[in-house]
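Q&A log
Question type: sequence-to-structure
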Amino acid sequence: VELEIPRRLRKAVIAYDAAQQAALLAAARELGPFYELLVLLGIDGGLRRGEIVGLQWSDINFSQGYLVVRHNIVRGKLDLPKGRTEDEVSLTSRLVAALKAFRHDDGPFVLTNKRGGHFSEQDPEAWMVKITRLANLPWHGTHVLRKTCGSRIADGGGGVAAVAAHLRHKDLQTASRYIDRHGASSRAINALET
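Response status: OK
Response body:
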């Protein structure tokens, strides 16, 4: 018996473009620093929603400009990040500024609930729904923030390795989804022509 397994179709990465990112950030700022920080941790930091709510102040090194992803909230409990390894993520200047402006001593978590603990990994969905409605943007889930981060790196010429490093992908194949195939091909031809 011969079986032919169909190849898996690769879906295009859905990410917010520059105008949509500006609208998203404007809406988040209107809602307050909490929401702005949520958006920036996604579109600049590339963190997953469980990593955003699991982020602790002790994970951030302001003097060196990076954070270490050490925690992930999974099913409401503190756990290790996906991949079970700790990874450093460099911080943009606007993310550093947002973190410093938001800094508080209410508990170990950056985004602290009323009891001084962490939120659930489901909470960012409600926050993002609120932001996208105010920004009048289409709803693409919470992972769109991370996808937007990867797309921004790729569109800025960062390449597959830069996307993989910042988003902490263990496999370059996963990171390659963020590279615009047509644009990459054009850049390759330009490089070959010189």
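Response note: Strands lie at 60-61, 66-69, 72-74, 77-79, 87-90.
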